[in-house]
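example protein:
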Amino acid sequence: MRYAALPFAAALFAAALFAAAAPLATAQEEPPAESDGPQEAPADNDDLFDDDLFNGLFDTAEDFEAPDPNDDPNGDTQPRGDLLSRFEDPDTVRLRSTITATGGVGYGWTRWPEPEAPWRHQRATAEFTSGFRFTFDARPDPVLRVFGSLSTEIDPAERKYQWTTVTIDELFFDYTLQDFIFVRAGQHKMKWGQGRIFTPGNLMDESEKGLAVRVNMPTVLDGISLVTLGQDDFFRDRPNSPRYLAYAGQASLVAGPVLFTAGARYQDAESLRALGSVKTVIRATDLFTDVVVSYDHRTDDVAVQTVSGFYREWGDWRFYGEHSFDGTSGRDDDHSAGLAFARRRIFGTRLNFATLWEHAFVDHSGTVVPGISWSPWRLVTARLGLPVTYGADNSRYVQDNEDPANRRLAAIFQLQLSASF
């Protein structure tokens, strides 16, 4: 769900996901999952500042799970009985629905307050949105899985006073061939690279907006994936030819405590992009580096992007930092940094605190977003954020301000009722 009048909350929610993320013991040992898959909401509303912008930031959801041989003691991969009965069997299908209602207010200044006239440049907003999401995860056969996620919303700020047309967020099937090759086809999310604040290594960003076929061979090296992706934009003013599809591949290798990953993506209208990634764990701290090299075959231009960072967790504390260099801007000094930290269950309560800071050294602009969340009543989460955007009027973070009200300094308060069944 998108909260049009509470956009700063999206950045706030991003920082606070550090408090909501599950322990990363699995993430420290395995490559990140390429699809979010079905997500289970915590029963105690302790998912601090969850938002679509960074949803599933540290999830290690099931990805190409091999069939359990106990599903069929005879080892028979052929369906037994009619297909409908297998889908209706509670052991082979999971259904989940989530309803949310969110209301909030925001108040702030579109420019820094002037001491002699503090009432100038003020702007207030109010918002109500409601959303409904339905997911199903079916296994009609031990070698076949079908997953789908559908959603709709009401958003008066966007003049949507009726439930919108149902949107298919994900819809795909997984097929297992001889416990060696795993195929996923349909509309689904993929995530490459290690960066979370800066993500040039995510070569498959927004893959869910098209039709993708992915073949995964986890026993070759430490995993190889091959992807073919088609999206509407690829064929705008072009014939419907395989030439204009996107083709990508990724391979992983674990050597001692170090995970090496290499990948590449090519599409005729894009630059050829190659990814090299290294990740390790030292004294319970994740350390990683992504390097992306882009080659534009139309101009012969080459550009380099890098992201390096760390992640550390101590009990209910989360701490995360990244440094980024973006050579695609054509500047040698385009460096950025981001830090986030969070504390869950302060003093043993459901009060959570988190802060996200991002800074662009190229023009000395950035954003700082501190916030808290707590659960005052059952199924209800309250959130309070104090986002600040700084820099010159023409600077990066000011120009890219996600707040439609263009507030530089604001206070955001939000109440959300959420229930899953």
Q: What stands out?
A: Helices lie at 7-20, 25-29, 83-88, 396-399. The first strand starts at residue 93 and ends at 109.
